[in-house]
Write a sequence for this structure.
C-alpha cells in the first residue's frame, strides 16, 4: 500500500485550482505554483519551504522546468514575454525578456547553457544563458507571416533540438537555431522524446511514430486501449506507453535484439476509469499512475506488483527520488512513499507473472506482434 509521508502543500500556499509543478530529483526539491501566482520551492528532505519566488508579471505561472543538474529553474507565465531563471546555488533570479509572447514550454540543453522555448506563433527560440544571445528557428527556416501554428513540444538530443507543432511538422535545429531537417507527419504531434538519435512522436494519441528524419516506423496499438496519454523511453531502447483506458504497454524498438517484436501489456485500471497521468522512476524501476476515479498506484516493473491508495482529484504525478508527488485540481500537492510490501503483495505479483496470459478484472496481459 501507499502511505502519505512528509507534510502536504495545501491551497493556503497555492490558492484554489490546478497546479503547475516540476520535480528536482538531484536535490529532492519541488517547485510549484497555483492561482496565488507565487512559485514555492519545497525541500522534501527536511520538509521545509526553501524559497518563495514572485515573478514580475501578474499572470499565472504556466510552465516550470529544472535543468538536469537541478541547479536551475525556468519559469514561464501566461501571456508574458519574460522568463525567469532561478539559480539554486546563488539563490538569485534572472529575468529575461524574449520579446515574444504566448510562450508554451522551455527546456534546458544537456549542458544547461541554452534554453529552448516554444511559442504558440510557430517560432522556436533558443536563448544562450552564457552569451545572452537569442536565436530563432521555424520549420521552414524563415518566419511564416500570418501563420500561428503552436510549437507545443520538443526535446534535446546532445547539441540538437527536435521540436514539433500541431499541424504535424517536426524539425531539428542546432544550438544556433539553424534548421537541420524538417518533415511533415500525418496528424497532430502531441509530444516528442529523443533517445539514441531516434525520435518517438505521439501522433494524436493514435500511434507512436519512431523517426530519425531518414526512416520512420509506426507503432500501432489496439483500439480497445484508447488514446496514448503518456510515453517514455527506457534505457534498453524499449518504450513504455500509457493508454486512456488504463493499459500499460512495454514495447521493444531494438530490431537487432532476438527478442525484438514483442510487446508486454497489462491493464491497471477498472472499466470506466480513465488514465490521467503517469510518471516513471528509472532509478527505482517503478511506474506511478493516477486515474479519473481517484486511483493512485505505484507499479514495480520487476514483479508487476502494485501499491494502491485513493486521493481525490489527482491530475498529475511525478517522482522525486523515492517519493511520489501528486497534485490535485484543488491546489494541494501530496507526497507518498511505498510501505514495505507484505508477503501477500509479493505473491500477487508472482502470480501475475506466472499466469500472464489470463484476464482478470483489473489486469489483462498479452504478447502482441511487433509493428501493428
Amino acid at each position: 500500500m501507499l502511505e502519505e509521508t512528509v507534510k502536504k502543500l495545501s491551497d493556503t500556499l497555492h490558492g484554489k485550482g490546478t497546479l503547475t509543478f516540476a520535480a528536482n530529483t538531484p536535490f529532492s526539491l519541488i517547485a510549484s505554483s497555483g492561482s496565488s501566482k507565487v512559485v514555492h520551492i519545497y525541500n522534501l528532505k527536511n520538509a521545509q519551504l526553501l524559497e518563495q519566488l514572485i515573478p514580475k508579471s501578474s499572470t499565472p505561472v504556466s510552465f516550470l522546468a529544472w535543468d538536469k543538474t537541478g541547479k536551475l529553474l525556468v519559469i514561464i507565465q501566461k501571456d508574458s514575454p519574460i522568463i525567469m531563471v532561478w539559480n539554486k546555488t546563488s539563490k538569485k533570479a534572472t529575468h529575461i525578456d524574449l520579446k515574444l509572447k504566448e510562450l508554451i514550454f522551455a527546456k534546458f540543453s544537456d549542458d544547461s547553457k541554452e534554453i529552448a522555448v516554444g511559442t504558440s506563433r510557430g517560432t522556436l527560440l533558443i536563448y544562450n544563458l552564457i552569451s545572452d544571445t537569442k536565436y530563432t528557428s521555424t520549420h521552414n527556416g524563415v518566419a511564416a507571416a500570418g501563420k500561428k501554428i503552436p510549437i507545443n513540444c520538443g526535446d534535446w538530443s546532445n547539441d540538437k533540438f527536435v521540436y514539433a507543432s500541431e499541424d504535424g511538422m517536426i524539425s531539428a535545429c542546432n544550438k544556433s537555431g539553424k534548421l537541420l531537417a524538417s518533415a511533415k507527419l500525418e496528424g497532430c504531434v502531441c509530444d516528442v522524446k529523443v533517445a539514441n538519435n531516434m525520435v518517438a512522436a505521439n501522433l494524436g494519441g493514435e500511434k507512436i511514430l519512431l523517426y530519425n528524419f531518414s526512416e520512420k516506423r509506426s507503432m500501432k496499438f489496439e483500439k480497445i486501449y484508447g488514446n496514448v496519454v503518456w510515453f517514455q523511453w527506457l534505457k534498453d531502447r524499449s518504450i513504455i506507453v500509457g493508454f486512456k483506458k488504463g493499459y500499460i504497454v512495454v514495447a521493444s524498438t531494438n530490431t537487432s535484439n532476438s527478442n525484438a517484436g514483442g510487446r508486454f501489456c497489462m491493464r491497471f485500471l477498472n472499466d470506466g476509469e480513465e488514465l490521467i497521468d503517469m510518471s516513471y522512476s528509472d532509478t527505482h524501476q517503478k511506474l506511478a499512475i493516477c486515474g479519473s476515479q481517484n486511483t493512485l498506484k505505484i507499479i514495480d516493473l520487476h514483479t508487476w506488483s502494485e501499491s494502491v491508495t485513493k486521493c481525490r482529484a489527482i491530475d498529475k504525478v511525478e517522482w522525486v527520488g523515492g517519493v511520489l508527488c501528486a497534485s490535485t485540481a484543488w491546489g494541494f500537492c501530496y507526497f507518498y512513499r511505498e510501505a514495505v510490501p507484505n508477503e501477500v503483495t509479493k505473491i500477487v505479483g508472482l502470480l501475475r507473472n506466472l499466469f500472464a496470459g489470463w484476464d482478470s478484472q483489473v489486469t489483462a496481459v498479452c504478447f502482441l506482434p511487433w509493428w501493428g
The chain has two helices and 33 strands.
